[in-house]
Every structure is written in structure tokens, then in C-alpha cells.
Amino acid sequence: MADRPRGRGRGQGPLRGRGGQSRDANRQNEHRDVPWKLLLGFRRLQELKDKEPYEVTLTLSKRKHAFKEALSEATHENNIVALFLRCIAKASECETLRESMIEIFVILENSLFFKSSHPAYIFSAMTEASHDRQMHYKQPFRDILTIVRDFRLKMPQSIVTVMGLNAILDTTFNSLRNNSSEVVDDEMWESYLEYKEAQEESLKRMATKKTKTRQEVDNEEDPPDDFRELTIFPGKVDVEINAEPFIRRNKKTGGYENTDHYLDVQFRLLREDFIGPLRDGIKEYIEAVHATGKAKRLQELRIYTDVQIISPVCNNSGLCRRISFHCKGMDRIRWESSKRLIYGSLVCLSSDNFQTLLFATVADRDLKNIQKGLVDVKFETDNRTIANIPEDSVCYGRNNCLLRSL
């Protein structure tokens, strides 16, 4: 399943400063002329790497000018490279502050650190003759895998950027593995192979989407059915792996034939916006389970396991069901600010690898309950089996209102 912090204290609004500037903006301006080594030097990074992911992300974001300046240098000492990798990997684990994390990844993607220092550091592991010195690369290599994996998930449009780095990783990991190095142990090797496979699948999906886009440009056929007869809530046919929904692009030139033509295009596009990621995620999950016998981290969905419908409850949404669930690293999630399982999120329950499906929406998300792995959902069919749940990454509740209007 999938999810997102709000609220603003007195005097902390976005335009509280003199002249319309925010306090955060003022602080960032204060840091502009401070050398990066004073803000993110060795001692600062040593302290930062042991903090919570939320704090690391917030610090790098607030000191983004120093962070950008540091990463703009082509060469760094190995210990500084390792510390930056540790901090970036820690930040990427943050469940909240998504915009700040994307900002950090954008700075990283365009930096000389990413194109020079980082690859040079990876290669240097093969030249270390000392076993003890070589073992110093173990944690940084774990961090590198975390970074490139999350880079693929959070910035799929930049997947080609890491292809050169992937080649360097492949050469280094294979060399260390063939030389019986303990740096790349079985667990790390398996993680690397999973990442490599996921990267290849992402490239294939990108190629497929480009092909479909070219086909959609010329799709001026009449719709196969009346869009008013389509359900807003998805059905099993909508998320089947080989489903090919009828959609037409928005017109950039020329006009629509009539009002129905315009509404049909908008309705189908908006409906596909939240059903498409669910379909792609289920396909990715099924392929991973068939290939390796276990699920992996998905791009479009979050999967929750050991799901059970435990009791009926009544709330403002009417008759609902309380379900219990589990997810990896659940005790580390900051549920009070996380966007996981927010009100209106679309979820899909299945007990047989999505051969049969039950769709529902999150109806109530009490903080004390969700910290215990309990959440209330609303759906029509009663069921008490153990299931897995994927949560759509696109907010169903917001789209639902627009679709009803159309």
C-alpha cells in the first residue's frame, strides 16, 4: 500500500518574514556565503550520519547551498565520500519531506561528485591490497545500493543518468566477488542483482511507454463505450496485466468535436492516472514473485503483508472494516507525518497473488491504531482471509471528486 505532514504553528507560515520572505529562506540566504566545510565538513557529517533520516533530510535541505557546493568539487578524500554516501543514503530512507528528498537527488544527479568522485571511489576498492582497508568499503557500498535503488524509485525519469554508474558498479562488484573479497558478501550481492534486474525492467517499461505514446498520438478512433457507463472505482478487468485501456491525448492543436468528446478524453485520462500505477505495480509484484519467489521494493506501490479483516466498525464513512497489516520497518515510520494510508487512499486486497481482488478506500486513520498496524477501510464485500495489500501511489479520493464531476 502507499501514502503523505501538515499543520503550521503560530508565526511559522510561509510569508511571516519582513518583505514577504520566509524564515527558512532567510536561514538559507545566511548560509549562502559560508564555506561548505564549515556547514558540512568532516565533523558535521560525522554527527549528521547518526541522526534520524528525517533530521538528515531536513539538514541537507536547509544547507542545500553548502551541499551543492561540496558536491560540485571533482575530488574528495575517501573518508569524506563515504560520509556523504552515508548521509544521502540515510536521507533517502525518510518517509516524509518527499520534495526535499527529490531536491537532494537533483543536486546529486547534476554534481561532479556523482560523475567523478563517486565512480572513482567505487573503482578504488579494487586497488586496495590490504584486507582491513578494503573492508572499509562495505558500508559505503551498501549505501551506494540504497542510493541508486531509491534514485530509480523517486526519479524514474532520470534512470538513464545512472547507467554509467551501473557499469562501474558491475565491474567492481564482479571483480571483488571473483577475488573472494568479503566486501561484497552474499547479502550485498543479492541486493545488487535485485537492483540490476529492477533497473532492466524499468528500462523495458520506459521503452514500452514510448511505443504506446506514439500509438496514442494517432488514436482518433471512436470510444468503444460511453464513458458515463464506466465505474469510477476500478474493477478486476482494469488492473489485469495485459489490460489496454482506451485513452486519447489532450488536443494541443485544433478543437474537440463536441462537449462529449472533451469530457470523454478528460475522464479516461484522469481515471487512468490512478488505475495505471496500480496495474503497473501489481504486474511488477507478480513478475518479481514468479522470478524470485519473493516480493521486492516496487516503484508504483507499497505492499503490506499479513493483512486480515478483523472487525466491522462504524464511522463517518458508514459501515467499514478494521484491518490489521504489517510492513517492513514499520516501527521506524513516522505515522504522524507520513502520507502512507491517508484518508481516501485506494487499496487493493488479495490472498492469491492478485488472481482475485477486493478494492477499498481508507476511511479512518487513527494515529494510535495505525501505529499498531490497524486501519479502517470501506468496501462492499465482506471477507476474513489473510491477504496482501498494494496501495496506489496516486490519491484516489482527490481524483474521485473530479471524475464524478466529469
TrEMBL record:
Residues 10-20 have a biased composition (Gly residues). Pfam families: ZNFX1. Residues 1-29, 206-225 are annotated as: Disordered. It comes from the Eukaryota. This is ZNFX1 domain-containing protein. It comes from Mytilus edulis (Blue mussel). InterPro entries: ZNFX1. Residues 296-391 form the ZNFX1 domain.
